[in-house]
């Protein structure tokens, strides 16, 4: 039976805007303050995120590479590394889990923390928000730390809007008595409605949540349906959306009886690969990454064999999980032929919905790994020869009849 998830009506929102870009700056500090764009990992050559310096030149998220370079010739392109982003996100989630047992990941760089019951440990809401800020800052590198915003209030929506209004390093706490007044003054964009709904609301002259809240609920519902009723209840403060923590994950196990006893290491590794794939496909694992695991072997004779490992980086990729097991097998192989092999995922860290979008299949994850290897090789070449010897082919004017105008060569700068 699956344990029930914990909930909390009082919430804190931890938000780091432009999380992917800040992760890149954490790995490559020389990008700070430069015009940088991160490429979308889906292969469409669209810009996933752009730095403030690039934005000042007119570059926007969603543009093609050619459009971005046309507006900003000095634009530096960086391949998206979703696994690295989720590693930092996992560190943040784990640190917040030390403050409260109720942590709900929302989007990449955005989490909600349940505050119910924390008063006896940390004090009032302001003290709790300060404790959350300190825990988050301690888990993150400076590039991510500088963008950290924390908001707190009754319900996730209030906490999210408070985080938007917060300054980095200075949590914004909305008292219950001030909640309705605070929400009324916020722009209508704070609701996060789809573009079509936002356009209709603006055409009606509704610029703030207070203006929307002043309308009758039934009138809004008649115009916008069920979604309009939901937005109206958020704007009026009548809807208190709780933080919903994920229920604890039980260990995930996969086992296989071998057709014949064997001590062939290559065969054992192939079996482990199959078992790892089977365990990763378990529905309970969806949305979580493996942090620690155990491999057990029943032997033809003598006692059983086991080894426990903690991954340096939480992962949901077969090769990243099996690689340290292969090293352990080479160093400390089972003392007798194996007749049954078992893999057990003992500890898992929450992933993000964004990672599922980024790395929906193995090819996206593989591209991220190749990108890291290519950056490393390019840096070695630059250090050896004093300049970049690699170039990137980018599409500039796909419609041009002249081949030399369709594509351009730019330096590959890791």
Describe the structure.
With 414 residues, the protein is an alpha+beta fold. It has helices spanning 19-27, 52-56, 65-71, 82-97, 119-122, 125-139, 142-145, 156-165, 179-184, 195-203, 209-213, 217-236, 265-280, 318-331, 353-358, 362-385, 403-406; strands at 7-8, 10-15, 36-39, 47-50, 76-79, 103-107, 110-114, 149-154, 172-173, 243-244, 252-262, 288-299, 305-315, 338-350, 391-395, 407-411. The strands form five sheets. The chain has a five-stranded mixed β-sheet with strand order 6-7-2-8-9. Strand 8 (149-154), helix 8 and strand 9 form a beta-alpha-beta unit. Helix 4 (82-97) packs across helix 6 and helix 13 runs antiparallel to helix 14 (318-331). The chain is globular. The model is unreliable at 353-365 (pLDDT under 50).
């Amino acid at each position: 039976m699956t344990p029930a998830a914990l909930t909390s009506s009082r919430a804190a929102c931890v938000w780091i805007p432009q999380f992917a870009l800040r992760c890149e700056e954490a790995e490559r500090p020389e990008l700070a303050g430069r015009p940088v764009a991160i490429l979308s990992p889906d292969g469409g050559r669209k810009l996933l995120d752009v730095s403030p310096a690039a934005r000042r030149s007119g570059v926007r998220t969603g543009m093609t590479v050619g459009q971005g370079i046309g507006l900003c010739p000095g634009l530096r392109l960086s391949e998206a590394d979703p696994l690295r982003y989720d590693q930092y996100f996992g560190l943040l989630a784990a640190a917040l889990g030390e403050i409260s047992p109720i942590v709900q990941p929302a989007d990449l760089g955005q989490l909600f923390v349940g505050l119910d019951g924390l008063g006896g440990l940390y004090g009032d809401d302001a003290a709790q928000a300060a404790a959350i800020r300190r825990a988050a800052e301690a888990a993150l590198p400076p590039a991510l730390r500088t963008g950290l915003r924390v908001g707190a209030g009754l319900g996730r929506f209030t906490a999210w809007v408070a985080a938007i209004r917060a300054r980095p390093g200075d949590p914004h706490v909305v008292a219950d008595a001030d909640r309705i007044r605070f929400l009324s003054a916020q722009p209508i964009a704070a609701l996060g409605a789809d573009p079509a709904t936002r356009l209709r609301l603006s055409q009606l002259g509704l610029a703030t949540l207070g203006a929307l809240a002043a309308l009758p609920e039934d009138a809004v519902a008649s115009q916008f349906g069920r979604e309009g009723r939901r937005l109206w209840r958020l704007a009026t403060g009548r809807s208190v959306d709780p933080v919903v923590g994920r229920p604890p994950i039980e260990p995930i196990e996969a086992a296989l009886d071998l057709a014949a006893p064997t001590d062939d290491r290559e065969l054992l590794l192939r079996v482990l690969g199959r078992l790892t794939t089977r365990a990763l496909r378990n529905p309970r694992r969806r949305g979580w990454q493996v942090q620690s695991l155990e491999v057990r072997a029943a032997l033809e004779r003598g006692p059983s064999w086991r080894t426990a490992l903690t991954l340096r980086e939480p992962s949901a990729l077969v090769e990243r999980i099996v690689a340290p097991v292969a090293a352990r097998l080479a160093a400390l192989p089972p003392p007798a032929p194996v007749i049954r092999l078992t893999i057990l995922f003992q500890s898992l860290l929450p992933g993000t919905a964004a990672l599922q979008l980024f790395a929906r299949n193995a090819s996206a994850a593989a591209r991220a790994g190749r990108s890291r290897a290519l950056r490393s090789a390019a840096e070695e070449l630059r250090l050896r020869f004093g300049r970049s010897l690699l170039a990137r082919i980018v599409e500039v004017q796909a419609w041009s009849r002249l081949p030399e105008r369709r594509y351009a060569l730019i330096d590959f700068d890791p």
